[in-house]
Amino acid sequence: MKPSKGLQAKRMNWNPFKFLSSKQVLYEGLFWCTLWFLLTYLELQSGQRSILFYLVDKFLNIICFTATIHWANTWYLIPNYLNKNKLWLYAGFLIGFALLITPIRTAVRMLHYSSNADMRLYIQNHQYTDYLFSFIIAGFSTIFYIMREWARQLQEKQELDTRNIQTELNFLKSQINPHFLFNTLNSLYALTLKKSDDAPEIVIKLSEMMRYMLYECNEKKVALRKELDYVRNYLDLEALRHKKTDIRLEVEGETGDLMIAPLIFIAFIENCFKHGISQHLSQSYVSIHIMIEQAEVNFFVENSKAEKLPLREAARKSGGIGIANVKRRLELMYPAGNYSLEVHDKSNTYSVNLWIKL
To answer: What's the average model confidence in pLDDT over 309-336?
Structure first.
């Protein structure tokens, strides 16, 4: 009776070495060859035989048997039994394999020392020691396999975490960009309805900002200088829209070649104009101070706020999706100790103090 096609395919595809990389096989081969030559050299220092005799002896004892125990355990027994929680089967096969290989090792070595009766007797009387040695080798190979698999899984987990973080960052940035664009287009629409002469200038500023968001913000970090240029363009745009608002920007220090996560400041600044500029204020302001010192940047923004707002306006959650997203991005991009964020919501002012270690 012929086996089924599925069984034939399964047999053809079975490969006991499929989980081993070529680099790993090379490293293990170099290890065993180095051990072989080292033990041969040490035996030559105390023995009276030829180098060929000891090369053959160590090859039989080390490569043919010790390495075989390690490879059989690592390549077959562990993947097929230990990894599948078949502990009793794994232990049984390991004991059986040691029982099988010990007399074979003894017979081969006795044949090799056929002209040395004392050595033959010594080998015959120490079969139990060889049997225990086989278990020790298997134990070390099991520990080595477990440690290697743990390191591999840890590396895979770190790579997965990195990919997940990058995916989340890209998603958060994709939320920020349309959010800002929506607000800016509303401003442009209002000016075009009034047939304002400021509309063309707004289009130019908007095009510069869109170019920055489309071509620069795809990177994990951007030049701090470009991020500040983006902030200036945004403030210029808002200044055209809010002519009665006092908008101040002060930057101290040199940007140099410092890099920062893109679109970090803009959410806080946008929040000032979205919630801080109110018709219930006779005079409103937005004040921004940025201090750059060595590899640190301190960003402080404060805006005026009406003490009492209509119920509909007061019920709106200050900050919205933009602030929530930038907080999450700060957590992802700058681990604990590399940034601090303080928000102060007072009766007539709202301020944010952000410190980042670049």
So the answer is: 65
